[in-house]
Structures are given as structure tokens and as C-alpha cells.
TrEMBL record:
InterPro entries: Meteorin-like. Its main location: secreted. It is found in: Secreted. Coiled coil: none annotated. Transmembrane segments: none annotated. This is Meteorin-like protein. One of its GO terms (molecular function) is hormone activity. Belongs to the meteorin family. GO terms for biological process: energy homeostasis; positive regulation of brown fat cell differentiation.
Length: 158
């Protein structure tokens, strides 16, 4: 979970399950993550399946194909539902951009991927990835903030 400092954009940076730093990237603080789940244009639990870096000359950053198992919020239709009903497990898919200077972990848990809290913003009609901690890390910080009464909002994490 990182922020790109130079341009004010945000993104994911994970390597082997550890948070590392790269040029222009820094980890999001717990407070930033908790505010992001409450105020971002989108927030959900899911994984990053592919990173499209075909446009290497494109300074905008790579497109990420993501799949969500839980959608907490979206201000516009970034993610589309696969259907399902109240009893069936629903999923959502969509594409978001990652900042160009922040490497992104994707794939299954064995390759550094797994479940993340994915948050972000809409900029000029494009969805941009923001703070994105591993979901288990988010749950820990969320529960600690809930216990201390410092959560900026409540969401259903079950």
C-alpha cells in the first residue's frame, strides 16, 4: 500500500508480502487507509489479476484488471457485477490504472498477490488505484481503530 509522492497519485507496492519503497512511492499510513475506505470514489476487497504494460511509453501507468469479492462503494460504474443474488457469491470486475512509478503485485498468494482492500479515485474519467493494503492488514488496523473508537466510518467486513 503506497502513495506516489511526486505527482500526488497513489498505488500498490508489495514484494514478497513486505512493504518496500521505490522511487516516488511511500506506504500509506493506517489513517490514510481508514480514510480511503470511507471517502474514496471506490473501495472493495479483491485481487489484481493482470497488469497491462503494453503501453510502456505511456507515462500514465499500467492498467490493472481486478476482480472484487466485496464492493463497499463506487461513485460511478467502475466495476460490473457478475450477477448473483443475496445467497449467491457475487463478484465484480473492472480496470483501474496504477501510478507509473509504483510496482504492483498481482496473481495468487504464492506469487505475491492475494486479497487486498482496493481503494482509489476517478480522474478525468479513469479509475486510479489508491491505498491498497493486503486485506488481512486492513482488517487488523480497522478492528484496532474500531476498538479505540477512532474509525472515521463503519463498513461490514464480514
Amino acid at each position: 500500500m503506497v502513495r506516489e509522492e511526486e505527482e500526488g497519485a497513489e498505488g500498490v507496492l508489495e514484494e514478497g508480502g513486505e512493504h518496500v519503497t521505490a522511487a516516488h512511492c511511500r506506504p500509506c499510513s493506517d489513517e490514510e487507509v481508514l480514510m480511503a475506505v470511507c471517502t474514496s470514489d471506490f473501495a472493495g476487497r479483491g485481487s489484481i489479476h493482470t497488469v497491462d504494460q503494453q503501453q510502456e511509453e505511456d507515462a500514465s501507468g499500467p492498467w490493472l484488471q481486478v476482480s472484487l469479492t466485496r464492493l463497499y462503494r463506487q461513485k460511478t460504474r467502475i466495476f460490473t457485477s457478475s450477477g448473483g443474488n443475496a445467497r449467491a457469491r457475487r463478484s465484480w470486475t473492472g480496470r483501474v490504472r496504477a501510478p507509473p512509478h509504483c510496482p504492483v503485485a498481482h496473481g495468487n498468494a504464492d506469487t505475491g498477490g492475494g486479497d487486498y482492500l482496493l481503494t482509489g479515485a476517478l480522474r478525468l474519467g479513469e479509475a486510479w488505484l489508491g491505498c491498497a493494503p493486503r486485506y488481512q492488514d486492513f482488517l487488523k488496523m480497522y478492528r484496532e481503530a474500531q476498538a479505540s473508537g477512532t474509525n472515521p466510518c463503519s463498513i461490514d467486513t464480514d
